Known about the structure:
Layout (H helix, E strand, L loop, with lengths): L11 H7 L26 H6 L12 H14 L3 E5 L2 H12 L5 E5 L4 H9 L7 E5 L15 E7 L11 H10 L3 E5 L4 H4 L9 E4 L14 E5 L4 H11 L5 H11 L2 H19 L5 E5 L9 H7 L6 E6 L7 H11 L4 E2 L9 E4 L16 E5 L5 H17 L1
Parallel strand pairs: 2-3, 2-4, 4-5, 5-6, 10-11
Antiparallel strand pairs: 1-7, 6-7, 8-9, 9-12, 11-12
Amino acid sequence: MNKHEKTPNRGLNTRLTHSGHDPQSYHGFVNPPVVHASTVLFPDAATMESRNSKYTYGTHGTPTTDALAAAIDELEGSAGTVILPSGLAAVSVPFLAVLSAGDHVLVVDSVYGPTRRFCNDMLCRYGIEATYYNPMMGAEIEQLIRPNTKLVHTEAPGSNTFEMQDIPAIAEVAHGHGALVSMDNTWATPLYFKPLDHGVDLSIHAATKYPAGHSDILLGTVSANEAAWPALNTANMLLGMCGSPDDSYMTLRGLRTMGVRLERHQQSALQIARALEGRPGVAKVLHPALESFPGHDLWKRDFCGSSGIFSIVLDVADAERHRAKAHAFLDALTLFGLGYSWGGYESLCVYANLSDRTVALPPKEGPVIRLQIGLEDSEDLLADIEKALAAANAA
């Protein structure tokens, strides 16, 4: 057996280290080459006409993008993966792949904000209607399914407020009505949750986050099962969407250490989240791995780990003071950067805007502060948060 042959019993870190590239296929070099390509030359006219060649044009894949896609396929257990230039592209391409004019899509109300904007500002222009549903719905989602419902989009945990979803129950209902299921699984990565094993057809990731891991890459991936792969692959080629070879190479490089980085993110985030529970000035800690969280049982049943992002709700009775208190908290931080995205090595913080919610309404106790726990020492980060809480209290 070739030492690089896939074996399902290998541990995650072993698979992360060895997946996606066989060094012997490129003269023994450990990492795959970065192939910059647009034009591909064919050996003769017949091959050019039939396109009977592994590579035909740069937008259809290169050895570099294929190496990353192969690694993701191994982690996801998918029939195929497409590499896209951003996380939002990884949402929009599968939507466009399976939805047509006159169709209906169900979207969880705790969805990533740009996904909602894509549905409201783009899909509606093409006669596709989106309905937002309560993330706490499981099999009850059946009451919202229409004859023209073609897709149910899920995200667990939900953006900013981290609601859990009963993914297997939703998938069973959707499939019973002929609809596909997509899931934004960026929070957990396929290391801590494998969507396709729980009935999801299209697994979506902003690889910008944990796979790349260093706040310098924009990339997305979509992995499909056998049923959804033909439509996804075709739509991706028709749209001309593709991740760059340099970003694909760097993401594959980041993937090698994702397991050990996630372990540290998880450990520090849980330590800080537990320390903040019951702390004066904190009304709630929104982290699915905490026993106090309403969706903890679903997380414990389906997930095998948690990542480094969660939220706290500041204890601010006066709604008119939410913004001022949140800004005082953010401005007092020194180790946490004020910036969007997450999944990198550094800690970040944002004041979550939940004004677009229609069903999963924002907590009433106070403003929601989202914390991305990086790779710094957790004691230092906790001290920074304590200082910020004191500033918010004084504001």
